[in-house]
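Reopening: 3-hydroxybutyrate dehydrogenase still failing for me.
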Amino acid sequence: MFEGLLKGRLAVVTGSNSGIGLGIARELARAGSDLVLNSFTDRDEDHALARDMAKEFGVEVRYIKADLSKAEEARGLVEKAGRCDILVNNAGIQHVAPIPEFPTEKWDAIIAINLTSAFHTTAIALPMMRKAGWGRIVNIASAHGLTASPFKSAYVAAKHGLVGFTKVTALETATEEITCNAICPGYVLTPLVEAQIPDQMKTHNMGREEVIEKVMLDRQPSKKFATVEEMGGTAVFLCSDAAAQITGTTISVDGGWTAL
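Support: Ran it again with your exact input. Result attached.
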């Protein structure tokens, strides 16, 4: 449906060698966008992933290592890209613990990677977009950017902050051909989530389907995982001309979670 829609654009997608980030990158490539993939590792398989995607979709794909917990590396990622028509701030980590027991270093890392890195990448990308006369920023927030759960203080704070930052970015670019929006996923079936299912089965003494429905998707009324392809399709739509007047808002892809 979106084939060729983004031909000639360059997208920088943070945290994109697996999971949601990779799913979004693949759909952007399918729509014709050239890509910069990113994570904090610098393995042969990271660069091989870029080569394989380039071959599969017929676009230019590079992999650039950057530790997004560090301001200079977050900014350097976009600088090394050379241009940035589309910026997808996706990189994120998680830790679960009660507030009194939440490790300070985990709080600092989650805020840095999930929230502050988006400020640094956006600060470098916006002048590039203004020079080009066009730009799209898509921040991957979460249902936890709109609601909360216990024991996820840093993650919820960061994702709420990312939604607020999305609105400010949209207001500062409102008269330009630049938009900024946030996608708020619920539970998405990624390799990381898939790996949690066996442990949840043991913990709750349930079968696979029962633990998915009653434990993992307890707050997701559809009782279905969202997919990385759906995240990617939503991102491509937000980058399209059809979404030119959609800015400063959130799009929930959460099976009805935030409707409760």
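Strands lie at 10-13, 34-39, 61-65, 86-89, 135-140, 178-185, 250-253. If you still see a failure, please send the error message rather than a screenshot.
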